[in-house]
From TrEMBL, chain A:
This is N(5)-glutamine methyltransferas-like protein MTQ2. CDD domains: AdoMet_MTases. GO terms for cellular component: eRF1 methyltransferase complex. Keywords: Methyltransferase, S-adenosyl-L-methionine, Transferase. The keyword Amino-acid biosynthesis does not apply. GO terms for biological process: methylation. One of its GO terms (molecular function) is protein methyltransferase activity.
TrEMBL record, chain B:
It holds the Pfam family Trm112p. GO terms for molecular function: protein heterodimerization activity. This is Trm112p-domain-containing protein. Belongs to the TRM112 family. It comes from Polyplosphaeria fusca. One of its GO terms (biological process) is tRNA methylation.
Length: 260, 135
Protein backbone atom coordinates (compact mmCIF):
# COMPACT_ATOMS: atom_id res chain seq x y z
CA UNK A 1 0.00 0.00 0.00
CA UNK A 2 1.39 3.39 -1.00
CA UNK A 3 0.99 6.14 1.64
CA UNK A 4 -2.03 8.51 1.49
CA UNK A 5 -0.98 12.18 1.46
CA UNK A 6 -1.77 14.28 4.52
CA UNK A 7 -4.67 16.73 4.25
CA UNK A 8 -4.66 17.75 7.94
CA UNK A 9 -4.15 21.44 7.00
CA UNK A 10 -7.36 21.58 4.89
CA UNK A 11 -10.50 23.32 6.17
CA UNK A 12 -13.22 20.80 5.28
CA UNK A 13 -16.00 23.35 5.80
CA UNK A 14 -15.00 24.86 2.45
CA UNK A 15 -13.19 22.06 0.65
CA UNK A 16 -14.38 18.50 -0.16
CA UNK A 17 -12.98 16.02 2.34
CA UNK A 18 -11.35 12.86 0.91
CA UNK A 19 -13.97 10.11 0.87
CA UNK A 20 -14.66 6.70 -0.64
CA UNK A 21 -14.52 8.13 -4.17
CA UNK A 22 -11.10 9.73 -3.61
CA UNK A 23 -9.73 6.49 -2.14
CA UNK A 24 -11.11 4.46 -5.06
CA UNK A 25 -9.04 6.65 -7.39
CA UNK A 26 -5.91 6.10 -5.28
CA UNK A 27 -6.49 2.33 -5.17
CA UNK A 28 -7.21 2.10 -8.88
CA UNK A 29 -4.23 4.19 -10.01
CA UNK A 30 -1.85 2.18 -7.84
CA UNK A 31 -3.33 -1.27 -8.68
CA UNK A 32 -0.94 -3.53 -10.62
CA UNK A 33 -3.25 -3.55 -13.66
CA UNK A 34 -3.12 0.26 -13.97
CA UNK A 35 0.54 0.75 -13.10
CA UNK A 36 1.30 -1.93 -15.69
CA UNK A 37 -0.72 -0.06 -18.30
CA UNK A 38 0.77 3.34 -17.39
CA UNK A 39 4.36 2.10 -17.18
CA UNK A 40 4.07 0.57 -20.61
CA UNK A 41 2.48 3.71 -22.05
CA UNK A 42 4.93 6.16 -20.45
CA UNK A 43 8.15 4.28 -19.91
CA UNK A 44 10.79 6.20 -21.84
CA UNK A 45 12.95 3.11 -22.28
CA UNK A 46 10.31 0.91 -23.86
CA UNK A 47 9.38 3.44 -26.51
CA UNK A 48 11.54 4.10 -29.52
CA UNK A 49 9.43 7.01 -30.68
CA UNK A 50 11.32 10.01 -29.35
CA UNK A 51 8.24 12.11 -28.59
CA UNK A 52 7.14 9.52 -26.05
CA UNK A 53 10.11 10.02 -23.78
CA UNK A 54 9.11 13.52 -22.64
CA UNK A 55 7.78 13.94 -19.08
CA UNK A 56 4.08 13.04 -18.75
CA UNK A 57 1.75 15.89 -17.73
CA UNK A 58 -0.91 14.77 -15.25
CA UNK A 59 -3.94 17.06 -15.01
CA UNK A 60 -6.59 16.69 -12.34
CA UNK A 61 -9.76 18.75 -12.65
CA UNK A 62 -11.62 19.47 -9.42
CA UNK A 63 -8.70 18.68 -7.12
CA UNK A 64 -10.57 19.52 -3.89
CA UNK A 65 -8.17 18.79 -1.02
CA UNK A 66 -5.55 17.70 -3.58
CA UNK A 67 -5.25 14.20 -2.11
CA UNK A 68 -5.41 12.40 -5.48
CA UNK A 69 -2.97 14.66 -7.35
CA UNK A 70 -0.61 14.62 -4.35
CA UNK A 71 -0.74 10.82 -4.30
CA UNK A 72 0.18 10.67 -7.98
CA UNK A 73 3.01 13.21 -7.57
CA UNK A 74 4.43 11.51 -4.47
CA UNK A 75 4.21 7.99 -5.91
CA UNK A 76 5.00 8.74 -9.54
CA UNK A 77 7.93 6.37 -9.52
CA UNK A 78 5.77 3.41 -8.44
CA UNK A 79 2.92 4.35 -10.76
CA UNK A 80 4.78 5.43 -13.91
CA UNK A 81 8.30 4.17 -13.33
CA UNK A 82 9.55 7.72 -13.97
CA UNK A 83 11.29 10.48 -12.00
CA UNK A 84 10.04 13.40 -14.07
CA UNK A 85 6.23 13.50 -13.86
CA UNK A 86 4.57 16.95 -14.04
CA UNK A 87 1.32 17.68 -12.22
CA UNK A 88 -1.22 20.42 -12.87
CA UNK A 89 -4.61 20.96 -11.24
CA UNK A 90 -7.73 23.08 -11.49
CA UNK A 91 -10.66 23.72 -9.18
CA UNK A 92 -13.62 26.08 -9.40
CA UNK A 93 -13.26 26.73 -5.63
CA UNK A 94 -10.35 29.09 -4.88
CA UNK A 95 -10.06 27.76 -1.31
CA UNK A 96 -9.51 24.29 -2.77
CA UNK A 97 -6.78 25.64 -5.09
CA UNK A 98 -4.77 26.98 -2.15
CA UNK A 99 -5.34 23.91 0.03
CA UNK A 100 -4.51 21.45 -2.74
CA UNK A 101 -1.36 23.31 -3.68
CA UNK A 102 -0.07 22.81 -0.15
CA UNK A 103 -1.16 19.13 -0.11
CA UNK A 104 0.77 18.42 -3.31
CA UNK A 105 3.92 20.35 -2.32
CA UNK A 106 4.07 18.68 1.10
CA UNK A 107 3.51 15.20 -0.31
CA UNK A 108 6.28 15.68 -2.89
CA UNK A 109 8.70 16.89 -0.20
CA UNK A 110 7.87 14.20 2.35
CA UNK A 111 8.11 11.38 -0.17
CA UNK A 112 11.37 12.74 -1.66
CA UNK A 113 9.67 12.32 -5.01
CA UNK A 114 11.25 13.95 -8.07
CA UNK A 115 7.87 14.99 -9.49
CA UNK A 116 7.45 18.57 -10.61
CA UNK A 117 4.32 20.12 -9.10
CA UNK A 118 3.03 22.91 -11.34
CA UNK A 119 0.17 25.10 -10.18
CA UNK A 120 -3.40 24.52 -9.10
CA UNK A 121 -5.36 27.16 -11.00
CA UNK A 122 -8.83 28.47 -10.31
CA UNK A 123 -10.87 27.57 -13.36
CA UNK A 124 -13.89 25.91 -14.92
CA UNK A 125 -12.99 22.27 -15.77
CA UNK A 126 -10.04 22.27 -18.23
CA UNK A 127 -11.12 25.30 -20.22
CA UNK A 128 -7.78 27.11 -19.69
CA UNK A 129 -5.58 24.14 -20.63
CA UNK A 130 -3.72 24.28 -23.94
CA UNK A 131 -5.17 21.71 -26.37
CA UNK A 132 -3.54 18.25 -26.69
CA UNK A 133 -1.01 18.72 -23.89
CA UNK A 134 -2.42 16.36 -21.23
CA UNK A 135 -1.05 12.83 -20.90
CA UNK A 136 -2.98 11.62 -17.86
CA UNK A 137 -6.29 13.18 -16.96
CA UNK A 138 -8.08 12.51 -13.66
CA UNK A 139 -11.60 13.63 -12.72
CA UNK A 140 -13.63 12.92 -9.61
CA UNK A 141 -16.72 14.87 -10.67
CA UNK A 142 -19.71 16.19 -8.78
CA UNK A 143 -21.70 13.04 -9.66
CA UNK A 144 -24.74 13.14 -7.34
CA UNK A 145 -28.10 13.68 -9.09
CA UNK A 146 -28.97 17.01 -7.44
CA UNK A 147 -29.77 20.45 -8.75
CA UNK A 148 -26.68 22.44 -9.77
CA UNK A 149 -25.86 25.38 -7.48
CA UNK A 150 -26.60 28.93 -8.63
CA UNK A 151 -23.35 30.06 -10.27
CA UNK A 152 -24.48 33.69 -10.22
CA UNK A 153 -23.23 33.78 -6.63
CA UNK A 154 -19.85 32.33 -7.49
CA UNK A 155 -17.68 35.44 -7.46
CA UNK A 156 -19.02 36.48 -4.08
CA UNK A 157 -18.93 33.01 -2.52
CA UNK A 158 -15.60 31.71 -3.80
CA UNK A 159 -13.47 34.22 -1.86
CA UNK A 160 -13.35 35.74 1.59
CA UNK A 161 -14.85 39.19 1.67
CA UNK A 162 -12.45 41.88 2.86
CA UNK A 163 -14.26 42.44 6.13
CA UNK A 164 -14.65 38.76 7.06
CA UNK A 165 -11.96 36.37 8.16
CA UNK A 166 -14.19 33.32 7.85
CA UNK A 167 -16.77 32.00 5.41
CA UNK A 168 -20.49 32.11 6.16
CA UNK A 169 -22.70 29.02 6.47
CA UNK A 170 -24.34 29.96 3.14
CA UNK A 171 -20.96 30.20 1.50
CA UNK A 172 -19.83 26.83 2.85
CA UNK A 173 -23.08 25.21 1.65
CA UNK A 174 -22.54 26.62 -1.83
CA UNK A 175 -18.92 25.42 -1.95
CA UNK A 176 -19.97 21.94 -0.79
CA UNK A 177 -22.72 21.80 -3.44
CA UNK A 178 -20.11 22.57 -6.12
CA UNK A 179 -18.23 19.46 -5.04
CA UNK A 180 -21.12 16.98 -5.28
CA UNK A 181 -24.16 18.30 -7.21
CA UNK A 182 -24.12 16.99 -10.78
CA UNK A 183 -27.54 18.01 -12.11
CA UNK A 184 -29.72 15.57 -14.10
CA UNK A 185 -28.49 11.96 -13.63
CA UNK A 186 -25.50 13.53 -11.88
CA UNK A 187 -24.04 13.90 -15.38
CA UNK A 188 -24.35 17.58 -16.35
CA UNK A 189 -20.85 18.55 -15.23
CA UNK A 190 -19.30 15.23 -16.31
CA UNK A 191 -20.84 15.53 -19.79
CA UNK A 192 -19.31 18.99 -20.23
CA UNK A 193 -15.96 17.55 -19.13
CA UNK A 194 -16.23 14.52 -21.43
CA UNK A 195 -16.76 16.98 -24.28
CA UNK A 196 -13.36 18.57 -23.52
CA UNK A 197 -11.39 15.34 -23.12
CA UNK A 198 -10.64 14.62 -26.81
CA UNK A 199 -9.37 18.20 -27.16
CA UNK A 200 -7.03 18.24 -24.17
CA UNK A 201 -5.50 14.73 -24.35
CA UNK A 202 -2.20 14.29 -26.16
CA UNK A 203 -2.80 12.44 -29.42
CA UNK A 204 -0.45 9.49 -29.03
CA UNK A 205 -0.42 8.57 -25.33
CA UNK A 206 -3.21 10.52 -23.57
CA UNK A 207 -5.39 8.60 -21.12
CA UNK A 208 -8.24 9.77 -18.86
CA UNK A 209 -9.63 8.36 -15.61
CA UNK A 210 -13.17 9.47 -14.77
CA UNK A 211 -15.15 8.37 -11.72
CA UNK A 212 -18.85 7.52 -12.14
CA UNK A 213 -21.57 6.34 -9.78
CA UNK A 214 -24.32 3.85 -10.62
CA UNK A 215 -26.93 6.60 -11.16
CA UNK A 216 -24.74 8.14 -13.87
CA UNK A 217 -25.65 5.11 -16.08
CA UNK A 218 -22.01 4.15 -16.64
CA UNK A 219 -22.71 1.59 -19.39
CA UNK A 220 -24.43 4.29 -21.43
CA UNK A 221 -21.59 6.74 -20.76
CA UNK A 222 -19.00 4.23 -22.00
CA UNK A 223 -21.05 3.44 -25.12
CA UNK A 224 -21.23 7.15 -25.94
CA UNK A 225 -17.47 7.58 -25.55
CA UNK A 226 -16.86 4.71 -27.97
CA UNK A 227 -18.96 6.64 -30.50
CA UNK A 228 -16.30 9.42 -30.54
CA UNK A 229 -14.51 7.32 -33.16
CA UNK A 230 -13.19 3.85 -33.90
CA UNK A 231 -9.93 4.46 -31.97
CA UNK A 232 -11.62 5.41 -28.68
CA UNK A 233 -11.79 2.95 -25.78
CA UNK A 234 -13.69 3.20 -22.49
CA UNK A 235 -13.42 0.44 -19.89
CA UNK A 236 -14.15 0.10 -16.17
CA UNK A 237 -10.82 -0.43 -14.42
CA UNK A 238 -11.82 -0.11 -10.75
CA UNK A 239 -14.99 -0.26 -8.63
CA UNK A 240 -16.25 -0.18 -5.06
CA UNK A 241 -19.49 -0.54 -3.13
CA UNK A 242 -22.25 -3.11 -3.30
CA UNK A 243 -23.87 -3.85 -6.65
CA UNK A 244 -27.37 -3.12 -5.36
CA UNK A 245 -26.31 0.03 -3.48
CA UNK A 246 -26.90 3.59 -4.60
CA UNK A 247 -23.30 4.57 -4.04
CA UNK A 248 -21.70 1.98 -6.27
CA UNK A 249 -18.69 3.73 -7.75
CA UNK A 250 -16.45 2.94 -10.67
CA UNK A 251 -13.44 4.36 -12.49
CA UNK A 252 -13.61 4.44 -16.27
CA UNK A 253 -10.38 4.59 -18.25
CA UNK A 254 -10.73 6.47 -21.55
CA UNK A 255 -8.01 6.32 -24.16
CA UNK A 256 -7.45 6.11 -27.89
CA UNK A 257 -5.54 3.36 -29.56
CA UNK A 258 -3.70 4.89 -32.45
CA UNK A 259 -2.32 2.26 -34.78
CA UNK A 260 1.41 2.78 -35.22
CA UNK B 1 2.32 30.74 -10.58
CA UNK B 2 5.35 29.09 -12.12
CA UNK B 3 6.38 30.21 -15.59
CA UNK B 4 6.44 26.56 -16.74
CA UNK B 5 2.71 26.40 -15.96
CA UNK B 6 2.18 29.05 -18.65
CA UNK B 7 3.54 26.56 -21.21
CA UNK B 8 0.33 24.56 -20.72
CA UNK B 9 -2.30 27.30 -20.39
CA UNK B 10 -4.30 29.27 -22.89
CA UNK B 11 -7.29 31.60 -22.99
CA UNK B 12 -10.36 29.91 -21.45
CA UNK B 13 -12.74 31.39 -24.04
CA UNK B 14 -13.76 28.67 -26.47
CA UNK B 15 -13.70 30.81 -29.59
CA UNK B 16 -10.07 31.82 -28.86
CA UNK B 17 -8.75 28.24 -28.95
CA UNK B 18 -8.41 28.18 -32.74
CA UNK B 19 -6.47 31.46 -32.81
CA UNK B 20 -2.67 31.19 -32.47
CA UNK B 21 -2.76 34.56 -30.66
CA UNK B 22 -4.44 32.95 -27.62
CA UNK B 23 -1.09 31.39 -26.67
CA UNK B 24 0.96 32.35 -24.81
CA UNK B 25 -0.93 34.50 -22.33
CA UNK B 26 0.95 37.77 -21.85
CA UNK B 27 1.92 38.90 -18.34
CA UNK B 28 0.76 42.41 -17.37
CA UNK B 29 1.92 44.42 -14.35
CA UNK B 30 3.37 41.26 -12.85
CA UNK B 31 5.06 41.06 -9.47
CA UNK B 32 7.46 38.15 -9.52
CA UNK B 33 8.65 35.88 -6.73
CA UNK B 34 11.44 33.34 -6.47
CA UNK B 35 10.77 30.04 -4.70
CA UNK B 36 13.87 27.88 -4.73
CA UNK B 37 13.63 24.18 -5.49
CA UNK B 38 15.94 21.24 -6.22
CA UNK B 39 17.17 20.98 -9.77
CA UNK B 40 16.09 17.77 -11.54
CA UNK B 41 18.54 17.30 -14.39
CA UNK B 42 16.69 14.36 -15.98
CA UNK B 43 13.51 16.40 -15.99
CA UNK B 44 15.14 19.45 -17.57
CA UNK B 45 16.63 17.32 -20.30
CA UNK B 46 13.37 15.52 -21.02
CA UNK B 47 11.10 18.57 -20.92
CA UNK B 48 12.94 20.40 -23.73
CA UNK B 49 10.86 18.91 -26.58
CA UNK B 50 7.66 19.94 -24.74
CA UNK B 51 8.61 23.59 -24.36
CA UNK B 52 7.06 26.13 -26.72
CA UNK B 53 10.41 27.87 -26.92
CA UNK B 54 9.70 31.05 -28.84
CA UNK B 55 6.59 31.69 -26.74
CA UNK B 56 8.62 31.13 -23.59
CA UNK B 57 11.18 33.66 -24.86
CA UNK B 58 8.32 36.12 -25.41
CA UNK B 59 7.11 35.69 -21.83
CA UNK B 60 10.58 36.17 -20.30
CA UNK B 61 11.16 39.23 -22.49
CA UNK B 62 7.83 40.73 -21.46
CA UNK B 63 8.70 40.13 -17.81
CA UNK B 64 12.08 41.83 -18.26
CA UNK B 65 14.00 38.66 -17.32
CA UNK B 66 17.45 37.85 -18.76
CA UNK B 67 17.13 36.71 -22.37
CA UNK B 68 16.95 32.98 -23.08
CA UNK B 69 19.02 31.46 -25.91
CA UNK B 70 17.33 32.09 -29.27
CA UNK B 71 16.99 28.40 -30.04
CA UNK B 72 15.96 25.66 -27.67
CA UNK B 73 18.99 24.08 -25.93
CA UNK B 74 19.80 20.41 -26.52
CA UNK B 75 19.97 17.68 -23.90
CA UNK B 76 23.78 17.88 -24.05
CA UNK B 77 23.65 21.62 -23.30
CA UNK B 78 22.17 20.72 -19.90
CA UNK B 79 25.25 18.83 -18.74
CA UNK B 80 28.71 20.12 -17.81
CA UNK B 81 31.26 17.88 -19.46
CA UNK B 82 33.31 16.18 -16.75
CA UNK B 83 34.86 12.91 -17.72
CA UNK B 84 34.56 9.97 -15.39
CA UNK B 85 32.40 11.84 -12.91
CA UNK B 86 28.69 12.03 -12.22
CA UNK B 87 26.77 14.35 -14.52
CA UNK B 88 26.70 17.96 -13.35
CA UNK B 89 24.10 20.54 -14.35
CA UNK B 90 25.45 23.20 -16.71
CA UNK B 91 24.88 26.94 -16.30
CA UNK B 92 22.27 26.66 -19.08
CA UNK B 93 20.42 24.04 -17.02
CA UNK B 94 20.62 26.17 -13.88
CA UNK B 95 19.33 29.23 -15.74
CA UNK B 96 16.47 27.24 -17.23
CA UNK B 97 15.54 25.76 -13.85
CA UNK B 98 15.53 29.29 -12.41
CA UNK B 99 13.20 30.61 -15.11
CA UNK B 100 10.83 27.67 -15.49
CA UNK B 101 10.45 26.36 -11.95
CA UNK B 102 11.72 28.93 -9.46
CA UNK B 103 10.35 32.14 -10.98
CA UNK B 104 6.66 32.72 -10.47
CA UNK B 105 4.03 35.40 -10.88
CA UNK B 106 2.82 36.42 -7.43
CA UNK B 107 0.38 39.16 -8.47
CA UNK B 108 -0.65 40.57 -11.82
CA UNK B 109 -2.55 39.81 -14.98
CA UNK B 110 -2.35 37.39 -17.89
CA UNK B 111 -3.75 38.74 -21.13
CA UNK B 112 -5.05 36.82 -24.15
CA UNK B 113 -3.46 38.12 -27.37
CA UNK B 114 -6.63 37.33 -29.31
CA UNK B 115 -9.56 38.70 -27.29
CA UNK B 116 -7.68 40.90 -24.82
CA UNK B 117 -9.33 39.37 -21.77
CA UNK B 118 -7.18 39.70 -18.65
CA UNK B 119 -6.99 36.87 -16.10
CA UNK B 120 -5.89 37.88 -12.61
CA UNK B 121 -3.21 36.22 -10.54
CA UNK B 122 -3.71 36.75 -6.81
CA UNK B 123 -1.27 35.42 -4.22
CA UNK B 124 0.19 33.15 -6.88
CA UNK B 125 -3.15 31.60 -7.89
CA UNK B 126 -4.39 32.27 -11.42
CA UNK B 127 -8.12 32.89 -11.82
CA UNK B 128 -9.38 31.57 -15.17
CA UNK B 129 -13.09 31.68 -14.35
CA UNK B 130 -14.98 33.75 -16.88
CA UNK B 131 -17.72 36.24 -16.12
CA UNK B 132 -21.14 34.90 -17.16
CA UNK B 133 -21.37 36.82 -20.45
CA UNK B 134 -18.11 35.34 -21.78
CA UNK B 135 -18.76 31.65 -21.07
Amino acid sequence: MLPTPSTSHVNFDRVYEPAEDSYLLLDTLSAPSETGFLRQRFNALSRLDHTNSSPPLVLEVGVGSGVVLAFIAANAESIFGRHDVLTLGTDINSFACRAASQTVQSAVQESHSHSIALDIVNGDLASCVRPHTVDVFVFNPPYVPAELPDFAQHAAFSTLSKSDSSTTFEQDSYLLELSYAGGVDGMEVTNRMLGQIPHILGPSRGVAYVLLCAQNKPEEVKMNIRLWGPEWRAETVGSSGKLAGWEKLQIVRIWSEVSS
Amino acid sequence: MKLLTLNFLTCAIKSCKSSPASFPLHPRDATLEIIESDLNLAFLRNILPRLMWSELCTITRELGLPALPETVPTGEDMVEKKEGEEEVASQTAKDLHRVLLETGIREGGLVCGNCGHEYKVLEGVGNFLLPGHLV
